[in-house]
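Fold this sequence, please.
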Amino acid sequence: MIKEIIKYPTPLSVEYATDVRVFNDELFALIEDLKDTINENNLDGLAAFQIGNYYNVIVLKDEKGAFIEMINPRLISYKGRVSTQEATAYYPNQKAEITRYENISVVYQDRDGKDCSLQASGALAVTIQRKIDYTFGATFIHKMSKEEKERFEQRLEYGSDVGNSDYCPTTFKRDKIVLVMNVAMGLMVLGVVAALFIEDSALLHTLWKLLLYGAAGVIGLDIIYFFYAQYEGKKASGCSSCQIGNIIGTVAIVLLKLTVIMLLAYFFVYQ
């Protein structure tokens, strides 16, 4: 029977899963429910905790798509480390980079109560570790550093895009546009200062034309910045620096600086 998967923000229990002691029809029904739910949702595995059952049971698919039933699984050895982009049904439409063991050994029991062991590596090893996490009432968020956890929780709160792990970057591509405008205006200021030492009218006239071209270029870049910043801001919807008010403020400051420069140029350069 297909079961409803528990999803955030519904909390998972913080208690350990209960080991199975009796291998009966109730257990077999649980395993089949897990399989049906995995198939229905196109998942690579589920723990009983994820459908509201507290037994220490996980079911997953191997590389060939065959089901592996693990009852009372225990991770007994591991080797190597690997970083992976993980997704889980508990956090729909979210991904996170998590460091896991690359090679593991697991002991468990099958549905007949027989002791089994399995050595796994790569994607299968990662899936097993993820599902065992649930038997401890945990998700991959418990594998994150304090800073990573804070970023992920804020991404959940603000509903940022799936692939946007940096929900509020410290730098943006649009900052390069602002840098170019500031450099251009800096050169224009140097031109105005240089005009104070120039007496040749023809040279001043040429400098004035260059300043006009520079002003036109800055205005053009300011317009490009305004629209591109909004486009880039959509990728970080939880970030206050991406809001339209901040973008308009930056545009206005550039125009104010440019206006001051051109007024000075009018009085000291224009002939």
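The mean pLDDT is 87. The beta strands are 45-47, 57-61, 67-88, 91-109, 115-121.
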